[in-house]
Amino acid sequence: MKKILVTGGAGFIGYFLIKELLKNKDNKIFVLDNMYRGRLDEEFKKIISNKNVSFQQVDLTDSNIFTSLDKDFEYIYHLAAVIGVKNVVENPDKVLRDNAITTLNLIEFAKNLKSLKKILFSSTSEIYAGTLKHFGIDIPTNEKVKLTLDDVNSPRTTYMLSKMYGESIMFNYGKKHNIPFTIVRYHNVYGPRMGYLHVIPEMLLKISKHKIVEVASPEHTRSMCFIDDAVEMTIRACENKITNKEILNIGNQDQEISIINLTKTIARVLKKNIDIKTLPDVEGSPSRRCPDISKIISMTGYSPKVNINDGIKKTFDWYKDKLHNRYE
User: Fold this and answer.
1) How buried is residue 212: exposed, middle or buried, by Cβ count under 10 Å (0-12/13-18/19+)?
2) Distances from the Cα of 314 to the Cα of 14, 122, 192, 193, 227, angstroms
3) Are the beta carbons of 208 and 271 closer than 8 angstroms?
4) Which residues, at least 6 apart from 132, have a Cβ–Cβ distance to it below 8 Å?
5) Quick check: 133 and 154 in contact, CB under 8 A?
6) How far apart are CA 247 and CA 103, in angstroms?
7) Is the pLDDT assigned to residue 47 strictly greater than 80?
8) What percent of the chain has pLDDT over 70?
9) End-to-end CA distance of the chain
10) Within a 10 A sphere around the Cβ of 30, how many other Cβ atoms?
11) Could you give the CA distance from residue 45 to residue 161 in angstroms, rounded to a whole number?
């Protein structure tokens, strides 16, 4: 039996991660989430009703929470974080405080886990944004890029900074206290149940309602990775011994697509004829983002399988009767 702790398990990636982990009936999964952005919907209720799942709604900034937890976890997936552009802009103090304290509380807890095989820390492609802006980087981008912090006066810098800080916690606590860890940097993961403040759900809604669809930053490209591939890469990154103390990009560099072509692809899936009205580029938006995933492929033996057409179809099949039930 594997005993697994998942923080932020009610969120997008967390939900699908737990669902995949439950395919092994020997796994015992403990889920922690404060439900700030997580959804207690029917799908999540079904997951936590499984006899192999234990769920607690808790505030992970409270260190006392960890004193009550079992001490024999083998794997920890630390996905909990305050994320989202709206939160970053409106609550930068919360981003800095919560993301730092929850990670510090977790690593202090992990120091005393004798059975621990790995912590997986979820980071982000945003961590490359400062270097890209000020110095430029090679694209596809590998994990060796030297990180540069953007303007510390800007609220939008807080998320990037909190993830840099989290990565530093992993390396320095990991080395000093012999805590095994792997850091993954997610790049444009999409799929069902991801909320609505993302480009694909937003386009699904626009195209379903309007003949004329506005598209900002039309020539900017993103490398889209379907959730099933992201979860498989996540589990392999966590459970593989050779990934210890490594940083790994998670994404799909073969599915890079411009925003305008993404819009056209979504329209085809919805079988809608649309006219596109292009808008100026969004200020601060990188013109191109694509990860080099050769390292994770080499270390785990897994390459993404889902192409953009199939991924959008699977995403739309979930959203099609929920398009007006908007949430973050």
Assistant:
1) exposed
2) 18, 24, 7, 11, 10
3) no
4) 141, 286
5) no
6) 17
7) yes
8) 99
9) 35
10) 18
11) 33
Whether this model's pTM surpasses 0.85? yes
Q: How many CB atoms lie within 10 A of CB 288?
A: 16
Alpha carbons 261 and 62: distance in angstroms, whole number: 45
Q: What is the pLDDT of residue 230?
A: 98
The answer to whether 211 touches 287, Cβ cutoff 8 Å, is no
Residue 56: Cβ within 10 Å count? 14
Which domains does the chain show, CATH number per domain?
A: 3-191+226-251+290-304 (3.40.50.720)
Q: How many CA atoms lie within 13 A of 61 on its CB side?
A: 12
In the three-class reduction of DSSP (H, G, I as helix; E, B as strand; rest coil), residue 219 is classed as: coil
How far apart are alpha carbons 92 and 98 in whole angstroms? 10
DSSP-assigned letter for residue 109: H
Strand partners, 249: 185
Say which DSSP state 146 is in. Answer: P
Q: What is the pLDDT of residue 88?
A: 84
Q: In a 3-state reduction of DSSP, which class is residue 71?
A: coil
Question: Helix or strand or coil: residue 90?
Answer: helix
pLDDT at residue 87, rounded to an integer: 79
Q: How far apart are CA 140 and CA 128, in angstroms?
A: 12
The residue type found at 256 is E
CB 100 within 8 A of CB 162: yes
pLDDT, position 327:
65
With vertex at residue 70, the alpha carbon angle to CA 68 and CA 71, rounded to the nearest 5 degrees, is 115
168 contact partners, CB below 8 Å, separation of at least 6: none
- Within 8 A by CB and 6+ apart from 231, the residues are 13, 16, 17, 20
In angstroms, rounded to a whole number, what is the distance separating the alpha carbons of residues 52 and 31? Answer: 11
CB 130 within 8 A of CB 148: yes
Q: How far apart are CA 298 and CA 39, in angstroms?
A: 35
